[in-house]
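Ops channel
N.P.: pipeline sanity check, posting one input/output pair.
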């Protein structure tokens, strides 16, 4: 019988060796996948952004910068744009006021009125200055705007993006920092594009600090988005990549993909929400916003579809009419 036990030992050794190799491959794949997911590029400051910093009054507002610390000690860069009634409005600001006036659906504030504060989040691999073009419209109709670089973006600290898991608390700290900088912010609404929209939805979950939100092209679930992208790029190999990526993500960075899920947050949001999504968005399909819309508890909820709109230019493709609709939504639900 000695030969039998020798064979058993050989199979045991081979099994252990094979299992070790499989485990090592899975960890390596998971390490690679988690790095691809959370490590993002930093966009450069553009000349148009420098012009705003140099002379903000030419765009209709005053600008103040400030820093805040995240819960885990990162420095987050932010700024406050306050409408300046003595300054000349920018061309986009004049156009949106004209459009709102022609539509005649809400009362258009006077130039010296501030109706509240809109906190604005940017997209993945973006920076807060990318929201300057939108803020020109919001400040023109009486809203103070708070912009900030998300962690691992722009000039803020951090090396990884967690898709809302940590960023939702960062947003709350930015608001507190803005209050310390300029005083009472009045009613607060949230605005976000893509990643910023997903973060805004998660920040509204369980909070009564925000009157309403307008979110452009948000993803519904990081987990579902990862599976969708993996299917497009890897086919059947996605089953060998996504699960180990998720496991290693939790081990390395303290969160799992399922924990970054705006659609889950939506089921606990009863404040007014406006979603905007391009019908031709191939990066985050419009079905994500449709799913979020169904999940929202809000009585005042709407999805603005942009015909022919894609992910990166949906607001430009929606034009002045879309900007007017978003401003009207804020005016209606933040002030009445």
């Amino acid at each position: 019988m000695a030969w039998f036990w020798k064979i058993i030992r050989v199979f045991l050794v081979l099994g252990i060796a094979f299992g070790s190799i499989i485990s090592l491959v899975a960890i390596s794949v998971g390490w690679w996948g988690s790095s691809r997911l959370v490590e993002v590029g930093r966009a450069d400051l553009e000349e148009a952004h420098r012009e705003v910093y140099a002379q903000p009054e030419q765009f209709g507002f005053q600008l103040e910068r400030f820093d805040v610390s995240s819960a885990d000690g990162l420095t987050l860069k932010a700024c406050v744009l306050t409408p300046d009634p003595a300054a000349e409005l920018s061309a986009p600001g004049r156009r949106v006021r004209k459009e709102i006036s022609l539509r005649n659906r809400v009362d258009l504030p006077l130039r010296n009125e501030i109706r509240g504060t809109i906190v604005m989040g940017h997209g993945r691999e973006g920076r807060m200055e990318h929201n300057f073009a939108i803020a020109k419209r919001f400040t023109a109709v009486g809203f103070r705007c708070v912009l900030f670089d998300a962690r691992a973006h722009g000039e803020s600290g951090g090396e990884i993006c967690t898709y809302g898991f940590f960023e939702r608390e960062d947003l709350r700290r930015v608001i507190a920092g803005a209050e310390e900088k300029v005083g009472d912010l009045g009613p607060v609404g949230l605005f976000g594009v893509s990643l910023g929209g997903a973060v805004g939805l998660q920040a509204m979950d369980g909070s009564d600090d925000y009157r309403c939100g307008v979110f452009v092209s948000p993803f519904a679930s990081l987990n579902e988005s990862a599976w969708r992208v993996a299917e497009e790029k890897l086919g059947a190999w996605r089953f060998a990549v996504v699960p180990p990526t998720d496991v290693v993500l939790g081990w390395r960075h303290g969160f799992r993909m399922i924990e970054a899920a705006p659609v889950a947050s939506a089921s606990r949001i009863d404040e007014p929400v406006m979603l905007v999504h391009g019908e031709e968005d191939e990066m985050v399909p419009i079905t994500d916003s449709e799913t979020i819309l169904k999940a929202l508890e809000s009585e005042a909820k709407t999805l603005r579809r942009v015909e022919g709109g894609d992910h990166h230019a949906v607001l430009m493709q929606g034009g002045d009419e879309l900007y007017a609709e978003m401003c009207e939504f804020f005016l209606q639900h933040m002030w009445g």
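N.P.: looks fine end to end. Confidence is low (pLDDT under 50) at residues 13-19.
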